[in-house]
Each structure stands twice: as structure tokens, then as C-alpha cells.
Specification:
Length: 742
């Protein structure tokens, strides 16, 4: 990263434009004054026509709070020490004067540390007039031929302007001349030598925006804001030298167009730049006297010089100012020399000085806060309240920031290293200020009269004079013209006849007279021709007037049509907006319903598959249970069959034994059958009686042994069991033991 890039303050994106109207950023210019004789170290370097670089002086060589040793700041334009007052005026104030004459407002203020050259920039010094005298000079240079007579325009004390008739104005002039009403300094009065050098300038700047069919009038006022109180510097006071009256503070009011103004503030009508500057100087002197009296410095108050320009169209004849208050356009240019920005601690200020510094800082801080909030509102689309009312200076200029004209600021810097810290703060604020946008003022409405009225009227008057001359009009006016005419004719030769035979003198005289007669005739013809030309020109002009009127009407109707269409567009846009919102709502609904549908479908699928699984499981269980029951039934049937077979077998066995017994008893010599073993059948024991542990497991009931040879130590049940097993092995039906009953 190179040195230049390192310290560069990052540029922010351009702010948002005003909705529906064009806007311009606050124009911030930087002027670097030359280093003072006693100043040793310089901390500022102009590195391009729009950038300056601040170098930290010796004591600040370490990086504090992450700041770089060099910091760069960019502005609309940076003027180095060699810039002349003329060039500065041309860049900074001339466009504002152009605007003023075109009926638009402007605000120009100088801002900077004490001693940085604010007053030098605004007021100037002898031989080097500042922006203020140069602006006055340009204004009067442009409007002088079109100025209204004194008191034709009259302020109404409510920030409005009234128009008086020529007669009323004349009466007022006479009244002021005879009654002891304080007079404004006349332009013919000799200029104060102190200021003569400041107002004289070779640069005859003029604006092209002057409307020749309007009449102009300039009013100036000059106020000072000290300790957040407004004082009128042009107020006429009958000062008592012994016991001077304390100056009266003025309040701020809002007019019917919501513009702020200083109530009861003196507005002086001026007819020339010299006169206006004289008024300004009177205010300056008053300021100086107040400063001496109150023991304060001029740099501790803000001074506001307001140039108000009233303009009204001439009537249809192009003769007088139109007597219609609504046709008066009032524009104003405020030239503000702000109090020096400084830290309280720096000058070791005490008591009143601390309060002063506090108030200055407070008002400058409010200015900063207002600018910050404005910028935030514009860049982020927020609508935070801008605290204009917190300070008189911001409250007075509220309209400018709300879109009442161009705002320009000249930041003055002293390259002296001692001012480094304060200059840093000033630079930051100034750079931020240029990010604020101010709505461009609207164009003045066009008046319905034909242009060129003033010239036509003047030409008509001249012609009338000439006609009067020819017809022997008023002597005092036409004598001069008549003399000129006679002088322009060739001189008559001498008519003295000394000799009766002189035939030269008379014919020469006759010839000269004939010559004069011819010239006269030519002049008369020329006049007649011009007269007829004039008539035809007037006819053409009248025709053109009619055409212009028609065009004006067309423009008016066009404007109305545009307005109507704009309204329609707005309505349609509103409808589109509503429809878009409705569509969006429907789409949202549709989307949520589709989502709901999908969720339900998924749930249904899940439930179906669950059901199928359940069915399969139930099917399996049914089959299992069926199998089990079939098996059980089979088992039970088999068991029943076995029981029955066993019973049959037992019966058979019994029968067989009985048969054998019967047969043996019939057959002699046959050995006795083995003694029949008696057994204690478990059945003999009652069913409810549990056998005791000593008795051991319940004994099987004895039954007759099928194999008597082994029956000596076997129980009947053992015998049965073995027989049963044998039968089982041989595949015969067996009877479960439990089913055996004897
Ligand atoms: N660009 C410049 N060229 C020459 N001299 C200058 C320039 N700027 C300022 N000065 C001189 O510097 C001195 C201080 O300037 P000035 O009074 O204008 O400062 P300031 O900012 O108005 O101070 P304060 O805040 O005290 O009113 C004056 O003597 C002035 O002539």
C-alpha cells in the first residue's frame, strides 16, 4: 500500500436522491491560507485540485487510535494559497448569484478554525474584496438597468413582499425626505475610504439570467448570532453614549410558506453595490462596537448577511411593475461567516469565554448533528427528526436543507501545525457534509405577458418624442432634437448681394435651399417609411403577441394536461402497487396451500403404508392363530381319541385279566398268580389336601401291572408307563398319563 492510499478516507456510496425531484450535494470547497510569519511547521499539503493531505506534526508522529500519520480529504475543489479572490468568487459564489437572479435561493457559509481565513474569504481586505462585495457587485452589474424605483417594492414584515404603485412610492419618498425617518445611505453618498478598495473591482461579472421584462429590487439585512441569541446589526438605535442600551435579541418565525425569518429584522432597500456594502459595513462597525463594549471577539459569533432580491414582471405595456403580490418572486442569498471552531481548553478560556466557546461548539455541534442525521436519512431511507431547533443557526437555515436552494460551504484551513487537531475535526465534518443532498429549487413560473415589452415601450417612447419634435411638441424636450436636425443640414451660403449684376449669390442660395428642401423631403420620406414600417412592425408584433398568447394558452393547457396525466399515472401506479400487493398475497397463500397439500399427501401416504403393514401383520397373526387353533384342535381330538382308546384298552385288559383268572381257576396245577399289589391310590387322599414335604412327591396311583414278573419293586404306574412307552414305540395309540383313571 503506498503512502497516498494508506491515509485516504474511504469514499462512501452516493446518497439517495430526493424522491420525485432532482437534488444536488452540498458543494464543499476547501481553501488553504498561507502560513503565518510566526508559524513554523506546516501540516497541510494540496496534492491535487480536489484533495489535500494532512501530516501529523512532530508531537503526533505515533499512530493514535489507529489513525494514520497522513490523512487525505477530498472536496469539490481545493484552492491552494495562490488562489485569488476573483477565481474563488468565480468558482464558488458566481453560480449562487446566477441562481439568485433566476429567483432561486442560496446559502454560502465559511467554516473553519479561528484564524483560518473565514472573514478574509467572505469579506476580504482592502484591495482584495471577498465573496460578499463581489456578489453585490455582480448583482447590481446585472440588474442595474432594470431596477424599480425606491419603495415600489415594500417588505411586509412577515417575510413577504408587496408592490406599490409609482404614485405611492413617490409619496413615500417624499414622506421619508421630509419626516425624520432614518434614511438609507444613498448610492451617491461618498464611500467610506476604509471600504472603497474592497468594493471596487475590475471584474464586471454579469449574469445572463436577467429578465428584461421584470423589475428588480434588492434588500439587505445583517444579523449576528451570539450565545444562541439573534441580534439585528442594522437596527437603528438612538444610542445614549453615557448609558448605552443593551441590544434586543430577535426571535425566529416561520412564514406562511414555512420559511424561517428573523422577526422584526431591519431590511434595507439598496440601489447599488456600494450602497449595499456601506450598509454591511455599518453593521460590521456596530458589531465591533458591541464586541468592545461586551469585551468579546468577532470570531465568537456567527454573522449572517442576507441579500434579498425581489422581482416582478412589468405590466402588459411594459411600463410599470405589475401590481400583483402573487407575481412577485423573492429569492435570497445568505452569506454566513461562522464562528471559529475551537476547543475550549486550547486558549485557556475562562468564565464568559468558556460559555461563549460552549455555545459556539454547541451550535456547530448541532450543525454537525443535523448534517449527520440528514445524511443518514438520505442514505439509509430513515426518517429521523433533524434537530434544527436545537440551535438558532440551524433553525434559521432549516429551509435550505429541506430543499429551498443550493448550499455551498468554504472550509478554510490554516496549515499551521498548532491547528492540526482542530483542522482534522473540521475536515471530517466537511467531508461528511458533501454527502448530504439538497433538493434542487423549482423553476420560477412563467408570467403570461409577451416578452420584449420593456424594449417596445422604450422604442415607442423615443418615437413619440421624435414625432412631438416634428409636430412642434413641447419645447423643453424637442428643442434639442430640432437644433440637432437643423445642424445636420448643409450650411447656407452667404446671401449678401453687393452687386446688382451678381448672378452667382442668389442662384447658389436657391440651389442650397433646394438642396435643403431635398434633404428635408428625404427625411420626411424616410420618416414616413419608418412610420409605415413601424405600423407594420407593430402589426406584426401584435400578431406575434396574439400568437404568443395562443402559445402561452397552449403551454398552459399542456401543463394542465401533464398535471392531469401525472395524477393519472400516480393513481395507476397506486393501483398497480395495490394489485402487486394482492398478487403477492395470493401467491403467498397459494404457496402455503401447496405446502399444506404436500404435507397432507405425505401424511396420507404414510398412513396408507402403515395400514398395509398392519393388514399384513394382522393377516399373519390370523394365520398363526388359525394354525395354532387347528393344531390345538387336532391335539385335543387326538388326546380324546387316545383317552377313549386307552379306556377301551384298559377295559380290554381288565377283560383279559378276568378271562385269564376265569380260565386259570378252571385249569388245575397251575401256579398261583403273584399276589396282587395293593397300592395306595393318591385319589384316596382328599384333593384339597396338599402333601407334606416329608412325604415327597405324590405317588402315582398304582395300576395292575401288565408284566407281573417285574412288578415286585415297581409301582403300578411304572408298569403302565413302560407299557405305554412300548406302545408308543411300536406306533400304537398311547394314552397320556394324566388321562388314566382306574
Ligand atoms: N488566503 C489568505 N491570504 C492571505 N491572508 C489571509 C488569507 N486567509 C487569511 N488571511 C489572513 O489571516 C488572518 C486571519 O484571517 P481571518 O480573520 O479571515 O480568519 P477567521 O477564520 O475569520 O478568524 P476568526 O474565526 O477569528 O474570525 C487575517 O489577517 C487575514 O488577512
Amino acid at each position: 500500500m503506498n503512502r497516498q492510499q494508506k491515509g485516504r478516507t474511504p469514499r462512501r456510496p452516493p446518497p439517495k436522491k430526493f424522491p420525485g425531484s432532482q437534488s444536488d450535494p452540498v458543494g464543499v470547497y476547501c481553501r488553504v491560507r498561507p502560513l503565518g510569519q510566526d508559524d513554523k511547521e506546516c501540516c497541510i499539503e494540496v496534492i491535487s485540485s480536489s484533495t489535500i493531505q494532512l501530516h501529523a506534526p512532530e508531537g503526533f508522529k505515533t499512530n493514535r487510535n489507529g489513525e494514520y500519520k497522513e490523512t487525505q480529504y477530498s472536496f469539490k475543489k481545493v484552492f491552494g494559497v495562490s488562489i485569488s479572490q476573483t477565481d474563488l468568487f468565480e468558482h464558488v459564489a458566481k453560480p449562487l448569484v446566477d441562481d439568485l437572479i433566476s429567483g432561486k435561493n442560496g446559502l454560502l457559509f465559511t467554516y473553519g478554525v479561528t484564524g483560518s481565513g473565514k472573514t478574509f474569504t467572505m469579506t476580504g481586505s482592502p484591495g482584495e474584496g471577498g465573496l460578499l462585495p463581489r456578489s453585490l457587485y455582480m448583482i447590481f452589474n446585472s440588474i442595474s438597468p432594470y431596477q424599480a424605483k425606491r419603495y415600489v417594492f415594500k417588505t411586509d414584515d412577515k417575510n413577504g413582499m408587496e408592490v406599490q404603485s409609482e404614485v405611492e412610492a413617490l409619496l413615500e419618498r417624499q414622506r421619508r425626505d421630509h419626516v425624520s425617518i432614518p434614511k438609507t445611505p444613498s448610492s451617491r453618498q461618498k464611500l467610506d475610504p476604509e471600504i472603497a478598495d474592497m468594493i471596487k473591482t475590475e471584474d464586471a461579472y454579469q449574469t445572463e439570467g436577467v429578465d428584461e421584462d421584470s423589475s428588480y429590487c434588492v434588500f439587505v439585512s445583517y444579523v449576528e448570532i451570539y450565545n444562541n441569541y439573534i441580534y439585528d446589526l442594522l437596527e437603528e438605535t438612538q444610542d445614549d453614549v453615557i448609558k448605552p442600551k443593551a441590544p434586543q435579541s430577535r426571535s425566529l418565525r416561520e412564514d406562511q410558506n414555512h420559511n424561517m425569518y428573523v422577526a422584526g429584522c431591519m431590511e434595507v432597500e439598496v440601489k447599488s453595490a456600494e450602497e449595499a456594502f456601506q450598509v454591511f459595513w455599518r453593521g460590521q462597525k456596530k458589531r465591533k462596537v458591541a464586541n468592545t463594549r461586551l469585551n468579546r471577539e468577532s470570531s465568537r459569533s456567527h454573522s449572517v448577511f442576507i441579500i434579498k432580491l425581489a422581482q416582478a414582471p412589468l405590466d402588459a405595456e411594459g411600463d410599470n411593475v405589475l401590481q400583483d403580490k402573487n407575481q412577485v418572486t423573492v429569492s435570497q442569498l445568505c452569506l454566513v461567516d461562522l464562528a471559529g471552531s475551537e476547543r475550549t481548553g486550547r486558549t485557556g478560556a475562562e468564565g464568559t469565554r468558556v460559555r461563549e466557546a460552549g455555545n459556539i461548539n454547541q451550535s456547530l455541534l448541532t450543525l454537525r448533528t443535523c448534517i449527520e442525521i440528514l445524511r443518514e436519512n438520505q442514505m439509509c431511507g430513515t426518517s429521523k427528526m433533524v434537530p434544527y431547533r436545537d440551535s438558532k443557526i440551524t433553525h434559521l437555515f432549516k429551509n435550505y436543507f429541506d430543499g429551498e436552494g443550493k448550499v455551498r460551504m468554504v472550509v478554510c484551513v490554516n496549515p499551521n501545525a498548532d491547528d492540526y487537531e482542530e483542522t482534522l475535526l473540521v475536515m471530517r465534518f466537511a467531508e461528511m457534509t458533501q454527502e448530504v443532498e439538497v433538493a434542487r429549487p423549482v423553476e420560477r413560473p412563467i408570467c403570461g405577458f409577451t416578452p420584449g415589452r420593456r424594449h417596445r415601450n422604450q422604442a415607442f417612447k423615443e418615437e413619440l418624442t421624435r414625432k412631438l419634435v416634428e409636430r412642434g411638441g413641447p419645447i423643453d424636450t424637442d428643442f434639442h432634437v430640432l437644433t440637432n436636425l437643423v445642424q445636420s443640414l448643409p450650411p447656407l451660403p452667404s446671401s449678401e448681394v453687393t452687386d446688382p449684376h451678381d448672378d452667382i449669390t442668389l442662384p447658389r442660395l436657391i440651389e442650397a435651399l433646394e438642396n435643403r428642401q431635398r434633404i428635408r423631403q428625404t427625411i420626411v420620406d424616410e420618416y414616413n417609411r419608418k412610420d409605415s414600417n413601424m405600423v407594420s412592425t407593430e402589426n406584426i408584433l401584435q400578431e406575434q403577441n396574439v400568437k404568443l398568447l395562443e402559445k402561452d394558452q397552449l403551454i398552459q393547457s399542456g401543463k394542465m394536461e401533464i398535471e392531469r396525466l401525472e395524477k393519472k399515472i400516480k393513481t395507476q401506479e397506486y393501483k398497480i402497487d395495490v394489485l402487486q400487493k394482492t398478487t403477492k398475497n395470493y401467491e403467498d397463500d397459494k404457496r402455503s396451500m401447496q405446502q399444506e397439500l404436500e404435507t397432507r399427501e405425505q401424511r396420507l401416504h404414510r398412513e396408507l403404508s402403515e395400514k398395509r403393514r398392519m393388514e399384513q401383520r394382522m393377516q399373519g397373526m390370523v394365520t398363526d392363530t388359525q394354525h395354532k387353533w387347528e393344531k390345538e384342535c387336532d391335539r385335543r381330538v387326538n388326546a380324546m381319541q387316545l383317552t377313549m382308546q386307552n379306556k377301551l384298552w384298559v377295559k380290554d385288559e381288565k377283560l383279559k385279566q378276568l378271562k385269564a383268572i376265569v380260565t386259570e381257576s378252571k385249569t388245575p396245577g397251575r401256579p398261583d398268580p403273584p399276589p396282587r399289589q395293593t397300592h395306595t391310590a393318591p385319589q384316596s387322599q382328599p384333593r384339597w389336601q396338599r402333601p407334606s414335604r416329608e412325604e415327597g412327591p405324590p405317588k402315582r396311583s398304582a395300576s395292575p401291572s401288565p408284566l407281573p414278573t417285574e412288578s415286585c419293586n415297581k409301582t403300578v404306574s411304572d408298569v403302565y408307563f413302560e407299557a405305554y412307552m412300548e406302545r408308543f414305540k411300536s406306533g400304537q395309540n398311547v394314552m397320556p398319563h394324566s388321562e388314566i383313571s382306574l
